[in-house]
Design the sequence.
C-alpha cells in the first residue's frame, strides 16, 4: 500500500480522480420528504404497513377496496392523515374481530398520537348481538375507534359507520384526558354508542353535523333481572368541560322497545345526548369542574330521552325535540341509579313538542337555570314536571304553552300543556314562536354587550345598546295581541332581565322594499308599536330610516314603553293610522288640540261667510 501511495503522491491528478470516485461510491441514506403522501396499495399492500412507514404529518390515501385489518396508529405519528381516496369506495371491515385478533377492550382502530385525521371511509363494525348482556350494555366494550389519552386533537370526519346485521358497539370511544376531539359530518347507523367519552377530564369534545340512527338493544338489569334494561346512545360524556353538540340529527328506535320503562327500577339509556359531570365529581371524586355543555341546532326524535344533563352550566338552544318519552331531563334522583343535580343551564329557543313529558326537572341548583322562549306544546302528560326533592321553584316564563291563556297548572290536559306545581311560568307567550329557518328550534336568541349593536339576523333585528345589558329577541309566528291595522305581519318580543346598566335601547326592525310594496303600505309612515297587554300602542320615540330600511324605536326611562316595561314585550310595525281605534296613540292631547284649532278656524270662516 505504501508503494501505491508513493506512486499516487507523485501523480496528483490521478489521486484526485480516485478520491472523487471513492466519494461517489459512499452510500448515502435516503431522506424522506416530509410530509409525504403514501398510497395504499400502490406503495404498501396494507394500511397498517403504510402507518408503520409514515412519519408525523404524512397523508395516507387508501384506494378502492375492502380492507380487513386492525389498525394501530402508534406514538410518533402526530398529525397523520388517514383518508379514503376521493370518489372511491374504501371499506374498513371490522366485522370479524376474532379473525382480526381483537379482544373485548381493543379498538379496531387505536390512536396514540395527536391531531390524527380519519376521513372518508365506510366502516363496518362488529355485531354484538351474541355477546353477554353485561358486555352489550357497556360502552367500554368492542369499540370501533378508540382514542387514548395521547390522542388529543383527533378528527373523525365524513365517514359512514354501519353494521352488516344487528348492532355494533361504540363508533368512537374516548378515554381519560383526551381533549379537543372532533367528530364531524359522519353517518352512524346501527351503533349502540355513537360517541362515548368514558373517563375523566375529556375537554372540548365537538360533535357536529352528523346523522345518528340509533338502535335500541334490550336485556335485563344484571343484578335485578326482574327489571328491564336498554341501551342506545348518540353522545355520552362522563366528565369534562365544553361539550359541544351542534347541527346533528338523532333518530332513535324507541318505538321498537318491548320493556317496561315506566318501572322506576328499570334502566333505559336510549337518548341523544347525556353528560354526567356533576355525578362523577360527587360520587367518584373526579375533579369538581363546571362541565359546561352547548347543545344547539339538533333534531332529536323517537328516543326515550332527548337530552339528559348533569352539567354545571351551558345552553340547550334551538333544538327540535319531539316524539320522545322525555324531551329534556335535568338531574336525577334515584335509589338505584345515578343521583346528582344540574345547574347554570339556559334552555332557550327550543321546539319541545309531542313528547310525553317536555322537561322533567328531577334535581337542580336554583341559581342560573331557566327555560325561556321555547315552544312547549302538545306534550301529552306534562309540559314541565318539577320533582325536585327540595321543592325549589323552576324558572320558566316567556314560553308558549299551546294556548294564549297559558298552561294548565296541575289539572287534566286541555289545550294548553300541563305543568306541575313549583313552576314560575308567568308571563307566558300568547302566540307560538316562529320556526327557525335552519329547521331546528324556534327564532329566539340572547346576546350581551356594552355600548354596541347586537345583531339578531333570524329576527331581522338589531338592538343598539347604550350602556350594558343582556337582550333577548324572539320572533312570533303570528300576532301575539289583537288588531294592528296596516301591520307588516312580523312581530317580535324583547326581554331585558336587568335594565339597571342601560341608558337607552334602540330597536331596529329591518324590512325590504318588496315587502312594503306587496302590502301596499306607505314606507314613510312606518312606526313601531308595543303591546301593553290589551292594546297596540304607538312607541313615543319611533320612526323609519328609508335609506337603510329599518323601523326604529328608542326606549329610555322617559319613553313609552320605558326600559322598565321590557319584561317580555311584543313589538309590531305598521305604517297607517287605521280608523276604528285598533291602535291607540300614546297621548291624545295633540290630536284634541288640532281638532279644537280646526273647529275654531272653521268657525271664523263660517262667521266671515255669514257677514
Sequence:
Amino acid at each position: 500500500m505504501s508503494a501505491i501511495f508513493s506512486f499516487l503522491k507523485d501523480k496528483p491528478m490521478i489521486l484526485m480522480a480516485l478520491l472523487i470516485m471513492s466519494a461517489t461510491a459512499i452510500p448515502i441514506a435516503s431522506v424522506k420528504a416530509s410530509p409525504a403522501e403514501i398510497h395504499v396499495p400502490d406503495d404498501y399492500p396494507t394500511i397498517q404497513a403504510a402507518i408503520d412507514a409514515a412519519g408525523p404529518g404524512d397523508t395516507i390515501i387508501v384506494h378502492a377496496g375492502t380492507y380487513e385489518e386492525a389498525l394501530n396508529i402508534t406514538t410518533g405519528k402526530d398529525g397523520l392523515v388517514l383518508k379514503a381516496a376521493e370518489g372511491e369506495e374504501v371499506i374498513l371491515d371490522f366485522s370479524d374481530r376474532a379473525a382480526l385478533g381483537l379482544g373485548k377492550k381493543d379498538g379496531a382502530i387505536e390512536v396514540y398520537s395527536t391531531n390524527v385525521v380519519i376521513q372518508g371511509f365506510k366502516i363496518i363494525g362488529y355485531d354484538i348481538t351474541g355477546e353477554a348482556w353485561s358486555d352489550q350494555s357497556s360502552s367500554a366494550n368492542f369499540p370501533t375507534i378508540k382514542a387514548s389519552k395521547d390522542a388529543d386533537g383527533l378528527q373523525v370526519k365524513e365517514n359512514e359507520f354501519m353494521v352488516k346485521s344487528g348492532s355494533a358497539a361504540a363508533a368512537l370511544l374516548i378515554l381519560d384526558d383526551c381533549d379537543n376531539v372532533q367528530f364531524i359530518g359522519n353517518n352512524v347507523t346501527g351503533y349502540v354508542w355513537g360517541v362515548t367519552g368514558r373517563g375523566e377530564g375529556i375537554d372540548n369534545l365537538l360533535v357536529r353535523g352528523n346523522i345518528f340512527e340509533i338502535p335500541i338493544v334490550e336485556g335485563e338489569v344484571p343484578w335485578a333481572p326482574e327489571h328491564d334494561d336498554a341501551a342506545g346512545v348518540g353522545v355520552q360524556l362522563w366528565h369534562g368541560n365544553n361539550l359541544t353538540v351542534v347541527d346533528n340529527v338523532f333518530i332513535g328506535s324507541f318505538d321498537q322497545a318491548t320493556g317496561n320503562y315506566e318501572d322506576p327500577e328499570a334502566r333505559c339509556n336510549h337518548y341523544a345526548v347525556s353528560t354526567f359531570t356533576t355525578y362523577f365529581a360527587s360520587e367518584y371524586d373526579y375533579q369538581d369542574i363546571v362541565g359546561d355543555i352547548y347543545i344547539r341546532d339538533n333534531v332529536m326524535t323517537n328516543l326515550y330521552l332527548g337530552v339528559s344533563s348533569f352539567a354545571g352550566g351551558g345552553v340547550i338552544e334551538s333544538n327540535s325535540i319531539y316524539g320522545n318519552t322525555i324531551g329534556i331531563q335535568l338531574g336525577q334522583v334515584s335509589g338505584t341509579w345515578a343521583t346528582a343535580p344540574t345547574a347554570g343551564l339556559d334552555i332557550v329557543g327550543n321546539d319541545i313538542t309531542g313528547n310525553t313529558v317536555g322537561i322533567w326537572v328531577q334535581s337542580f341548583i336554583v341559581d342560573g337555570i331557566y327555560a325561556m322562549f321555547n315552544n312547549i306544546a302538545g306534550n301529552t302528560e306534562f309540559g314541565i314536571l318539577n320533582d325536585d326533592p327540595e321543592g325549589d321553584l323552576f324558572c320558566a316564563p316567556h314560553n308558549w304553552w299551546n294556548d294564549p291563556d297559558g298552561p294548565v297548572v296541575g289539572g287534566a290536559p286541555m289545550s294548553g300543556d300541563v305543568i306541575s306545581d313549583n313552576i314560575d311560568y308567568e308571563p307566558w307567550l300568547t302566540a307560538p314562536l316562529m320556526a327557525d329557518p335552519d329547521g331546528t328550534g324556534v327564532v329566539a336568541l340572547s346576546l350581551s354587550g356594552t355600548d354596541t349593536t347586537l345583531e339578531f339576523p333570524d329576527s331581522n333585528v338589531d338592538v343598539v345598546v347604550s350602556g350594558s345589558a343582556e337582550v333577548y329577541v324572539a320572533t312570533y309566528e303570528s300576532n301575539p295581541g289583537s288588531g294592528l291595522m296596516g301591520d307588516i305581519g312580523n312581530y317580535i318580543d324583547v326581554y331585558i332581565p336587568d335594565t339597571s346598566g342601560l341608558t337607552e335601547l334602540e330597536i331596529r326592525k329591518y324590512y325590504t322594499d318588496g315587502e312594503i310594496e306587496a302590502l301596499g303600505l306607505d314606507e314613510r309612515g312606518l312606526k313601531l308599536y308595543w303591546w301593553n297587554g290589551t292594546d297596540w300602542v304607538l312607541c313615543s320615540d319611533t320612526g323609519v330610516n328609508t335609506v337603510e330600511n329599518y323601523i326604529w324605536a328608542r326606549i329610555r326611562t322617559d319613553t313609552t314603553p320605558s326600559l322598565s316595561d321590557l319584561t317580555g314585550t311584543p313589538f309590531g310595525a305598521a305604517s297607517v293610522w287605521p280608523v276604528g281605534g285598533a291602535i291607540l296613540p300614546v297621548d291624545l292631547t295633540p290630536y284634541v288640540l288640532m281638532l279644537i284649532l280646526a273647529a275654531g278656524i272653521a268657525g271664523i270662516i263660517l262667521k266671515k261667510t255669514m257677514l
Residues 71-413 form a domain with the Pectate Lyase C-like fold (CATH 2.160.20). The chain is about 10% helix and 35% strand. The radius of gyration is 33 Å. The chain has two domains: 71-413, 444-589.
